[in-house]
Each structure stands twice: as structure tokens, then as C-alpha cells.
Write a structure and sequence with these properties.
The chain is an alpha/beta fold and about 650 residues long. About 35% of the residues lie in helices and about 20% in strands. A hairpin with a 5-residue loop joins β5 and β6. α16 runs parallel beside α17. The chain is elongated and about 105 Å long.
Length: about 650
């Protein structure tokens, strides 16, 4: 289906020009309309003297009394049209051809959803009566196509962008006591497996994408906004803890240019608003801060929970003020010293690495920070990171990965093998070579479980900094990505050569730091040492490519060193070097948050699953997709692992 774009709407409006003033006046039968000055009485409030004035530049009317605006699409929708119907009229008037044949047509290819066929009561008396108590008028009920079922319940109807009814949500037309079910979705006899939850917004089919769209938390709030003249109002389909609708609505949301977000006055609402502005893009969002309390004429104060309560206690003016005073949440370049929040590291979101000892020392990898991982080729950077990626995804950190070294295919293989673990591998010997293959049933389960949670930058794309950051940002918005991995910096196309190259690398690290902070993601960047020579130690900050400043800018620097056979040999006094009884040493070269600097952690590498582990529990660990309890011993233990297992048994023996 050919989607309506904001640009094509603007083009059509431009073609109509000032004809729109007369057309809107005509559609809405504006009172006291002055045809030469294009002003009239406002249809949205009780206006005695004309304060509704046409603005030629925006092609819409603006009311100087109640500060609301109406364009030609709004005017038709006020008369009952859907957005699509209104656009069709606009395009006809502007003589712009567009195929609208998909309107009202069920898209049968989409099998995920069904088409509800609700039964309505002959009248809406219970619905009107209940909502009138909440100060929502029958006009608003009708305009938002709210219905009543045969038991007197309220029915909220959700239509898609083709004006097709896709879901119906019910609630009792009375206050619902705690513990009782507050709402439910229409079930369909034909579709036992019906997904009652769709990602549509309430009133979506009447949203004008060329104007700011109000998104509330509940249907009652969306109706409250509508009641106060904000017709471009909607609400999210589930509770404020479920943001699945963002990825489902991705194309639609991308066609909108501004959102006015209304959240509930509670902890869950505050958490939601932080996450949703991050997902929709702070530059597109304004946020309505509801007053905490409202003083009543009798001197008592009422706590305000949501927009509908503000309408109830404060009246229409209170709602209009709150929405008109919505604040931009743009990132400014300065902040008032008094507004700078004291940082409590425990309060900052972040992911654990999954390595017990390391986590006890560095606590977490925090959102908004950049960690550099370095090491010579073969030191284990990719395995270390694929373990980190799996940990992150498992802890609820959807992850975006750019790998300049591995094809998408190899990267997939690498990460899923690590996620499968030894229990789900088959040993295959062919032509004398041993390999380990993941059992097909495990692959299927993992793919289902982790869909939308791990995104790879396509290996066919040119990895310029712009392309990478743009891709990451889109994934943060669409999928709620919270972790980014860039492996590695030298494969990024920085577009600079010779002396300029090192400056470009530093700039790239700076951009990584700014991006991690802006998008609030945990970022890992692989940086090679300057010289790719054989090190007999872990590379330090001065070995890193670029100048030292790249490492100085990052929040953390981890250096990996693969223990060599000669490291394991005792010196001439018969002493063994520390941390040589492992595969890889992880050195902390820099840590801005803790005193972990200089610490070394022994890590082990499992060749069959390619998993990094610090003890056998990590190696045995089931990731969330794997619900099976594995009682049998690990099938592909190496000699080193058998020694470890014996050591574990010894630990329990005090003698
Ligand atoms: Zn007005």
C-alpha cells in the first residue's frame, strides 16, 4: 500500500493555497466568518468575538483564545472523516492522483491478526452515563467511535491505517475496584490463538500526521484531550510498561513529525516517559507534565494521577494549559548547575558481564558509557565480545553489532554457538577434521526467542561513521537497543588518510562517547594496538592505535592477552608467573568508575562452544531460551576443564 507522507500533504496544501481558508470556514460552518480577513469565531471554545484566524504560511487556523490550531484535514475529521478519507478529499481538491483502493480492505496476507466482528448494544446509554461522570461528553464518545456491548461495557475500537477494525478493548462502564479485571480484548471464535494485543494506537485512524500527535497512556486520557479540543489525540494500546507498539508502528511513527506525550503521575509513568522519548527521538517529543495536585474550591487538594483526573478536578482550562505548556525534551548544550543530578552509580542502568569476579569489581557496564577492548589478533576479542553480547541480550539489553571482520553469517554462527553452549552441540568429524554443530531444534528455539533483540549492521553496507551511527540510532528507536558493539575501529571507513587518519580515529571515539550518552546505550569498541607485532604482554594504553587520547576519552579500557606456552613455564627459580593457568588474561587498563585499574582476571576459552568463562558455572550456564535442566556432565570437556572440575570437587574437601 502506498503510504501517505507528510511531504505529499504539504504539497497538496500548497497547491490549494489560501483557498483552504474558505474551505475550512465552509466545512466547519464558522460563525462570523470574515472572508477578506479570514477570521471567524473559534469552533473549539465559546468564542464571542472572532479569535480564530487563518495563517497563510501554515495553511491552518489558529485560535488566539484557546491556542489550538485546525488545518483542513482536522476540519474534515471534525465532521467525522478518518484521516485517510480526509486526505483523499484533500488530494482530490489538489488534483493529486493517489491510489486509495486499500482503504477498508482487509490485508489477508497478514495472518498474525484477526478481524474482530463485535456486537453492539442498540444504544450507548451506559457508556454515555459513565463517561459523562468522568466529564467526557457523548460527542467525544461518538467522535472517537467508542461503543457499548450488550452488557453495557465500554468498547474502545482500534482501526489500522487502512481504516480496518483490528482490535476491540473492553472495560466496565463503572469504577473498577482493585483486584477486578480492568480491561480485556475481544476474542474471536475463528482464531483461538488470537493475539489480543495489537500495536495500534487508540484513535490512530483519525491522527493527522502533519500536525503534532498527542499520545496518552489510557483511552480515558485520550478522550479527555479530545474533549478539550485536542482532536489529534491517541493512547497506547497496553500499559506503559509495554513498548512493543513502537516497533510494530515503526513506519507510521516515522511519518509523524512531532509528538506530545502525556504520562501518568507515578513511578511507572516517569520511567515510561524517559524510555519513550528515547525511542521516539527527543527532538520530536514534547512532554506534558501534569500537576501533582489540584487545589479544589473548598480548599482541599486532590492528587492528580492522569489527564482524565486533571479534567475531572481542574476542568478544561487546566487540561488546555497543561497540553499547551508541554515542554521540549531536547538535549541542550548547557545545564543549570543546580539541575545537575548527583550521580549514584547504583541507580544507573547497566549490564553485568556475567564473569562473577569481574562484575564484583567493576559492578556493571553502564548505559551511556564507552568501553574499549584491545588485544592483538587472536587474543580472543571476538569471543569475549560474543559472550558479552549474549549476556547483554539475555539481561534485557537488545544489541546492535557492527563487525568489520566477520560476515553477518560468521557473526551469527559465532554468537549463537556461544549462546547454545555445549549441551546443544553435536560433534562432527569429517575428513579428519572435528567441528561442532548446533542441534537444529536449538537453532529454531533461539531464533524465535531472540528475534528483534540482536541486530547486525549489514556486511554489504559501507561502514562510514554516519552510516553506523544512523543505523544504531534507528535501532535504538525501533527495537529499544541498549547495547552497541563496534568491532573494530580500523575497519570503519573514516574517509581520512595519512596524518589525518589518527585525528579521524580520535574524532570517531569522541562521536562514540557522545552517541552512547545521547542514546543511553552501553557501547563496546574494539581498538587494535598500534603495531600488530607479537606482544608478550597485554597491550597498554600507549600501544593503542590513534594517539593516547582515544583511550583517555573512553570510560573503560580492557586489554586481552592470550597466554602462551612459554608463559606457563616456571622461571629459573622454579616460580610460575601469575595468571598463566588460563587461556586469556583480561587486564583493566582504565576504569573511571571504580578502583579496578590494574586488576587482572583469568578467563578460559571453550573451543567447542566458543564461550568465554571464568568458572565451570559460566560454561554450564543456560541462557534464557534454554528452559531445560541439564543434569548430565558437559559433553565436550577439555583436559583443562576436567582439571578444573576436579579442582572444584577438591574445594569442597577441607583436607
Ligand atoms: Zn478557541
Amino acid at each position: 500500500m502506498e503510504q501517505i507522507s507528510k511531504e505529499s500533504i504539504l504539497e497538496a496544501k500548497e497547491k490549494l493555497g489560501d483557498r483552504q481558508a474558505d474551505m475550512i470556514a465552509d466545512i466547519l460552518s464558522l460563525k462570523q466568518y470574515n472572508q477578506s480577513r479570514h477570521i471567524a469565531c473559534c469552533p473549539l471554545h465559546d468564542d464571542k468575538t472572532p479569535s480564530f484566524s487563518y495563517n497563510a504560511r501554515s495553511g491552518s487556523y489558529f485560535c488566539f483564545g484557546c491556542h489550538r490550531s485546525v488545518d483542513i484535514l482536522d476540519a474534515w475529521m471534525m465532521k467525522g472523516d478518518t484521516f485517510l478519507q480526509a486526505v483523499e478529499k484533500l488530494f482530490q481538491e489538489a488534483e493529486m492522483p493517489h491510489n486509495f483502493s486499500y482503504r477498508g480492505v482487509r490485508d489477508n496476507e497478514e495472518t498474525e491478526f484477526c478481524y474482530p466482528e463485535p456486537t453492539y448494544a442498540p444504544t450507548k446509554e451506559h457508556v454515555y452515563a459513565y463517561w459523562q461522570k468522568r466529564r467526557i461528553s457523548p460527542e467525544t464518545i461518538d467522535a472517537m467511535d467508542v461503543q457499548e456491548d450488550t452488557n453495557g461495557n465500554t468498547m474502545f475500537q482500534f482501526y489500522d491505517n487502512a481504516d480496518v477494525l483490528r482490535a476491540v478493548k473492553f472495560r466496565p462502564s463503572r469504577p473498577v475496584p482493585h483486584g477486578e479485571r480492568k480491561c480485556w480484548w475481544l476474542k474471536d471464535e475463528k482464531h483461538k490463538e488470537l493475539k489480543p494485543y495489537v500495536g495500534l494506537l487508540f484513535n490512530q485512524h483519525k491522527l493527522n500526521i502533519s500536525e503534532p500527535i498527542i499520545i496518552c497512556t489510557g483511552e480515558g486520557d485520550a478522550m479527555a484531550a479530545y474533549e478539550c479540543g485536542f482532536h489529534n489525540s491517541s493512547s497506547i494500546p497496553g500499559g506503559d510498561q509495554n513498548l512493543n507498539w513502537v516497533s510494530y508502528q515503526w513506519d507510521f511513527l516515522n511519518r509523524c513529525h512531532q509528538f506530545v506525550l502525556v504520562y501518568d503521575n507515578d513511578d511507572s509513568g516517569r520511567k515510561y516517559i524517559k524510555e519513550i522519548t528515547r525511542r521516539l527521538g527527543e527532538e520530536r517529543c514534547k512532554v506534558v507534565d501534569l500537576p501533582e495536585t489540584w487545589e479544589m474550591p473548598d480548599g482541599s487538594t486532590k492528587h492528580i494521577k492522569d489527564l482524565n483526573e486533571l479534567l475531572f478536578y481542574g476542568g478544561k482550562d487546566a487540561v488546555i494549559n497543561a497540553i499547551n505548556n508541554a515542554q521540549e525534551r531536547q538535549i541542550e548544550s548547557v545545564i543549570d548547575c543546580s539541575d545537575v543530578q548527583d550521580i549514584d552509580m547504583d541507580g544507573i542502568d547497566g549490564m553485568k558481564t556475567g564473569f562473577k569476579e569481574l562484575d564484583s569489581c567493576i559492578n556493571r557496564s553502564y548505559c551511556g558509557t564507552v568501553s574499549i577492548v584491545t588485544g592483538v589478533p587472536g587474543a580472543g576479542k571476538t569471543s569475549f565480545l560474543s559472550t558479552i553480547i549474549n549476556e547483554g541480550v539475555d539481561q534485557g539489553f537488545p544489541t546492535w553489532v557492527y563487525s568489520g571482520e566477520l560476515s553477518n553469517n560468521a557473526l551469527r554462527n559465532w554468537t549463537i554457538k556461544c549462546r547454545a553452549g555445549q549441551y546443544w552441540l553435536d560433534k562432527v568429524v569429517r575428513d579428519g577434521f572435528t567441528s561442532y554443530q548446533i542441534k537444529p531444534e536449538a537453532i529454531k528455539k533461539m531464533d524465535e526467542f531472540y528475534r528483534d533483540k540482536l541486530l547486525f549492521f549489514k556486511d554489504t553496507y559501507d561502514a562510514t561513521p554516519d552510516a553506523l551511527f544512523h543505523s544504531l540510532e534507528s535501532c535504538v528507536r525501533k527495537y529499544g537497543v541498549k547495547m552497541a558493539v563496534i568491532d573494530n575501529l580500523s575497519s570503519v571507513n573514516l574517509g581520512a588518510f595519512g596524518d589525518k587518519y589518527w585525528d579521524a580515529q580520535n574524532q570517531f571515539i569522541r562521536d562514540c562517547i557522545a552517541t552512547a550518552k545521547r542514546l543511553d546505550v552501553v557501547m563496546w569498541v574494539v581498538l587494535h594496538p598500534k603495531k600488530m607485532v607479537e606482544f608478550n604482554r597485554a597491550p597498554d594504553l600507549y600501544d593503542l592505535s590513534g594517539s593516547v587520547s582515544a583511550a583517555n576519552l573512553a570510560h573503560r579500557v580492557f586489554s586481552l592477552y592470550r597466554v602462551k606456552e612459554e608463559d606457563r613455564q616456571p622461571d629459573k627459580n622454579g616460580k610460575h608467573k601469575p595468571y598463566t593457568d588460563c587461556s586469556v588474561q583480561l587486564h583493566i587498563m582504565k576504569d573511571r568508575f571504580t578502583s579496578a585499574l590494574g586488576h587482572v582476571y583469568p578467563l578460559y576459552y571453550d573451543p567447542s562452544s566458543r564461550r568465554f568463562y571464568d568458572n565451570l558455572d559460566t560454561l554450564r550456564k543456560n541462557y534464557s531460551w534454554d528452559k531445560e535442566e541439564h543434569k548430565e556432565p558437559l559433553p565436550f570437556l577439555t583436559e583443562e576443564q576436567i582439571r578444573m572440575a576436579n579442582g572444584e570437587a577438591d574445594d569442597s574437601d577441607p583436607f
